[in-house]
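Hi W.,

Here's what went into the run:
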Amino acid sequence: MGGFAAATAVRRVAEGRYAVELDGDFGIEQAINGGYSLAVMTRALLEDSPHPHPIATSASFLRVAKAGPAEVRVEPLKAGRTAAVARVTLVQNDQALVEALITTGTLDGDAAPVYSIEQEKLPPIEECLEFAPNNGFARQVDVRYDPATMGWLDGRPAGVPEMRGYLRLREPYEPDGILLALAVDALPPVVLNAGASGWAPTVELTWHMRAVPAPGRLAVHGRARLVSDGWFDEEIEVWDSAGRLVAQSRQIARVGRGR
Amino acid sequence: MGGFAAATAVRRVAEGRYAVELDGDFGIEQAINGGYSLAVMTRALLEDSPHPHPIATSASFLRVAKAGPAEVRVEPLKAGRTAAVARVTLVQNDQALVEALITTGTLDGDAAPVYSIEQEKLPPIEECLEFAPNNGFARQVDVRYDPATMGWLDGRPAGVPEMRGYLRLREPYEPDGILLALAVDALPPVVLNAGASGWAPTVELTWHMRAVPAPGRLAVHGRARLVSDGWFDEEIEVWDSAGRLVAQSRQIARVGRGR
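Here's what came out:
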């Protein structure tokens, strides 16, 4: 289809109801990507939100979304001067697929951090690998992976549940709050580097937009802290081309059981 | 009042509706603590949940809760074999105060981690400080603080937004999913060690229960990664007496502006 901007387009059909067309390119086989679902939901919310930036998004993934028509329903819960909160639901065939609470606010693009951790090392992009299987997601999203985190591809997982890379869209589209929603769920599951294989379904994902990203590629750093009892956490930090932490996420997901 | 067990008691008044009495001891002045609110909401949810453990809780704090009668409303969204999801709302005077999505599941108390980070250092409890202002919270919750993270008390903040300590209730009550909800929001704001002062209102908090905690004191490690533009994240890890990571949280909050 027509790329990320087109794939996140929303059409207001009634008060708090937006028609969307989920693009199968942003998925693996029939399952629509969770981050793309959140990007669509965020775009719908921002149509009528009193604030422009998705400060906090918490989402429960109830059922797998499929390519095709869907609807985003927005129900405002609070509209304050600093923050507004809404319940946002992605619906398909009258079933809720993703339910989210999204807090919007207004970030200052020029804010200088009072305190920040430092970005962990990522090799220069020339040393990174393009892993482009023949699927729609790779045709839309250009990710260059740190080779240290891609051993799982050759059956030699690093043993540490990490995944890192540079991300941008293949179309001209500079980072914003919508793209950050995609970026926090765009890498292969970090547990592929801890011996797991196959699809790792996200149960819950929360992400925070922390700064307005500068133009250019995003650096995406993912890791788990605990893999146990069939569950793992995946934490993503997204850094912009100016070296600022622009988004943080954590999801809880099920460890894949192989193909 | 009567301690944590009594303060989190719920009474079913109708399908999905539970009467509760918010105990002013679990608050500072008139504001009820966010973690205590989540503990009450979790207890209500677990009354009729198909699974016993709150795997993922994402909460938006809409309005300040006050001591006194309140109601928890539970609306199931999905009941699966691995996970069930419900919308849970704390209501007072017909206003929603806290809205949460809670995923429950069943953790195996004997699960051995496939991968785990290691616990960061915490001094032995004998070297930790009791900071017990004359308030209800300190009468109910026994926290012993790492002195390295308490410089802010004497006007000498460490400069790093961290806070660490051991936590248990003063009543006989061994850790469970309800107490973990309290533990992830029980420390003073980490930004007190980065020069901020005063109340730091939580806007959104998500926490995950990762293992069934062993009896004994909990170790609670808190830190921020970015303080910028009036916002900070606070990440808490809770470790049990057996040295296992039992809970993880991140909240996004507003930096206090002093008194």
